[in-house]
Design brief:
- Helix content is about 50%, strand content about 5%.
- With about 200 residues, the protein is mainly α.
- It has one domain: Intergrase catalytic core (hpI Integrase, Chain A, Orthogonal Bundle).
- Strands 1-2 form a two-stranded antiparallel ribbon.
- The termini are far apart.
Length: about 200
């Protein structure tokens, strides 16, 4: 987590790496991390909100409604059919019968896993599966992976930046552009355009 105004250096995974990773995590029975990375990337939620989720919030509805801890805003998120399938499949594999329990319980079953645990585990996982990510590895990677996917699918349009600004609860498009490293990428591309 960065301080307000501090530049975060976490970047995104490629979409192909994301898809491959969740498949491998499920195969290797790293079910909790598979679900965390899937839900985090396909909803764009901050880690503080992810860790408070319960299975019942995904049942019998197409919308996930939460009150964001950081912004105190109510947010409605459409549940992607692929995400619903992942959650149902992994819930069954984990043998979960109490849908009211937290999804990301610690090993003692008393409270959610810790943010610092998530970041340490992510570093281990990316190393194990040989996935290279620039900068620091942290849970911000989920949101940035989603953001970069949306940008790429929409040809890096200003409309996509505005949609992401609202999705991420940022106060301006400039913050979203900085968050996703768009301006820095554009500046670096200037050097590539200088051909002799």
């Amino acid at each position: 987590m960065s301080l307000q105004g501090q530049r975060t250096t976490t970047t995104a995974m490629s979409w192909d790496d994301f898809r491959s990773l969740i498949s491998k995590l499920e195969r290797d029975k790293e079910l909790k991390m598979c679900m965390l990375i899937s839900i985090g990337t396909l909803t764009g939620l901050r880690i503080s909100d992810l860790l408070q989720l319960r299975f019942c919030q995904f049942e019998n509805t197409d919308l996930l409604t939460i009150r964001e801890k950081k912004t105190k805003k109510t947010r409605r998120i459409k549940i992607n059919p692929d995400l619903r399938e992942i959650i149902e499949r992994i819930k069954a594999k984990m043998g979960i019968t109490d849908s009211t329990r937290l999804i990301f319980l610690n090993k003692y079953g008393s409270k959610p896993i810790d943010k610092s645990y998530v970041n340490v585990k992510l570093k281990e996982i990316l190393k194990k599966y040989d996935i290279n990510v620039e900068g620091n590895i942290s849970s911000h990677m989920f949101r940035k992976t989603l953001g970069n996917r949306v940008l790429r699918l929409n040809n890096y349009s200003n409309e996509a930046v505005i949609l992401l600004m609202e999705l991420f609860s940022h106060s301006s498009p400039a913050i979203t552009r900085r968050y996703l490293g768009i301006r820095e990428r554009e500046i670096l591309d200037v050097y590539d355009s200088l051909r002799i």
